[in-house]
C-alpha cells in the first residue's frame, strides 16, 4: 500500500489553514472528504498528526516532521503543475457525473462528442452518488432523492412519472376492465399472475408503485431480472409481460406501438428530478453547460 498524493495535499492545506473547513474551501472539496483524507493518512503512517480542538487543528510533533518532509516536494509539484497548465493548449477540464444508465442513454449519450471538456459517467445507487458528490469524487449528479449533506445543493429541473406498461402482444382486456370499475384488489390479484420484468436497480419503482396504488407491498417476484430498463423495453417490445418504469424511458416505444401504457394509477406517482452539486466547485461553467444541455434534452422527451 502506498500513500495517496491527495492525502498529502489535503494534509498540507489543513496544516497551513488550521481548520478542516478552511482546508475544504481551499481544495474545493467537502469537509467530510478532508476528514477522510486525513484519517487515511494517519492510518497509513500509524501516527496522530493533529490534536483536534474546537477552533484549530494543532500539529503534533510527528505532524510537524511530516510537513517538513513534504513541503518542498509538494511545492515543486505545484510549480510544475502551474507551468504545464499554462503551456498546455490542449488541456481540458474533467467532469465526473453520476446518473442512472437510462438517463445517460436517453439524454446525454448523443451529445458527448460535442463537449469541450472530458466527461466521466458513473452509474450506481443514489445514496452512493450523493456520498461521492460530497467527497469530491463526482461533480454533478441527477437524482430523484435529496440527501442531507450540508455541503450539497439540489435544484429541481424535471419530473418522471412511474407507470405500468405491457408488451403489445399482452392481453390486457380483463385488467383494463377491472381498473375502469376501480376494482383495485381484483386488478392486483390478476397482475400477480402475469409475467413480470424488472431490474435489480429499479425494484424500488415496483415496490413504491404497488404500495401507493394497491395499498400493499408486492408479495411476488419478477420472472425476469435484466440489466437495465432499456433491456426491459426491448424484451417487452412486441411481446408479452408487464413492468413498471419511468414514463420518459418508454415514450418512443409506446408511440411506435411496440409496448402499451396500461395504467398510471388513479393518482399518478411522480418523482421530482434534481441536479445535485457541491456548493463550491471550480467547474461552474462546465456544470452549467451540462445542466442546460440536459434540461433542453428533457424538454424533448417530455
From TrEMBL:
In what residue span(s) does the HTH lysR-type domain sit? 3-60
The record's section on InterPro entries has: LysR_HTH_N (IPR000847), LysR_subst-bd (IPR005119), WH-like_DNA-bd_sf (IPR036388), WH_DNA-bd_sf (IPR036390)
Q: Which CDD domains match?
A: PBP2_LTTR_substrate (cd05466)
| Record-linked PROSITE patterns | HTH_LYSR
Is Nucleotide-binding a UniProt keyword of this protein? no
Annotated protein name in UniProt? LysR family transcriptional regulator
- What PANTHER family does UniProt report for this protein, alphabetically? HTH-TYPE TRANSCRIPTIONAL REGULATOR (PTHR30126), HTH-TYPE TRANSCRIPTIONAL REGULATOR GLTR (PTHR30126:SF40)
Q: List the Pfam families hit by this protein, alphabetically.
A: HTH_1, LysR_substrate
Alphabetical keyword list: DNA-binding, Transcription, Transcription regulation
**SUPFAM superfamilies named among the record's database cross-references:** Periplasmic binding protein-like II, Winged helix' DNA-binding domain
Q: Does the keyword Secreted apply?
A: no
Would you identify the family this protein belongs to, as annotated? Answer: Belongs to the LysR transcriptional regulatory family.
Amino acid at each position: 500500500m502506498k500513500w495517496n498524493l491527495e492525502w498529502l495535499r489535503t494534509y498540507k492545506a489543513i496544516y497551513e489553514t488550521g481548520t478542516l473547513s478552511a482546508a475544504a474551501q481551499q481544495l474545493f472539496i467537502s469537509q467530510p472528504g478532508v476528514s477522510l483524507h486525513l484519517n487515511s493518512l494517519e492510518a497509513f503512517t500509524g501516527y496522530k498528526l493533529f490534536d483536534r480542538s474546537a477552533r484549530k487543528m494543532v500539529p503534533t510533533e510527528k505532524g510537524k516532521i511530516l510537513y517538513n518532509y513534504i513541503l518542498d516536494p509538494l511545492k515543486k509539484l505545484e510549480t510544475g503543475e502551474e507551468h504545464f497548465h499554462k503551456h498546455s493548449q490542449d488541456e481540458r477540464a474533467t467532469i465526473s457525473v453520476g446518473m442512472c444508465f437510462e438517463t445517460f442513454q436517453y439524454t446525454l449519450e448523443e451529445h458527448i462528442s460535442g463537449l469541450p471538456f472530458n466527461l466521466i459517467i458513473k452509474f450506481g445507487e443514489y445514496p452512493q452518488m450523493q456520498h461521492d458528490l460530497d467527497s469530491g469524487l463526482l461533480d454533478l449528479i441527477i437524482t430523484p432523492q435529496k440527501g442531507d449533506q450540508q455541503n450539497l445543493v439540489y435544484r429541481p429541473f424535471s419530473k418522471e412519472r412511474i407507470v405500468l406498461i405491457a408488451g403489445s402482444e399482452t392481453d390486457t382486456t380483463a385488467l383494463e376492465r377491472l381498473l375502469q370499475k376501480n376494482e383495485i384488489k381484483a386488478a392486483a390479484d390478476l397482475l400477480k399472475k402475469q409475467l413480470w420484468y424488472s431490474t435489480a436497480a429499479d425494484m424500488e419503482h415496483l415496490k413504491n408503485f404497488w404500495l401507493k396504488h394497491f395499498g400493499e407491498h408486492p408479495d411476488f417476484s419478477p420472472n425476469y431480472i435484466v440489466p437495465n430498463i432499456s433491456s426491459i423495453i426491448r424484451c417487452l417490445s412486441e411481446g408479452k409481460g408487464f413492468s413498471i418504469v419511468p414514463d420518459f424511458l418508454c415514450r418512443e416505444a409506446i408511440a411506435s406501438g411496440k409496448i402499451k401504457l396500461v395504467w398510471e394509477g388513479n393518482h399518478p406517482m411522480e418523482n421530482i428530478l434534481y441536479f445535485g452539486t457541491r456548493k463550491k466547485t471550480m467547474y461552474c461553467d462546465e456544470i452549467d453547460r451540462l445542466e442546460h444541455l440536459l434540461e433542453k434534452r428533457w424538454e424533448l422527451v417530455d
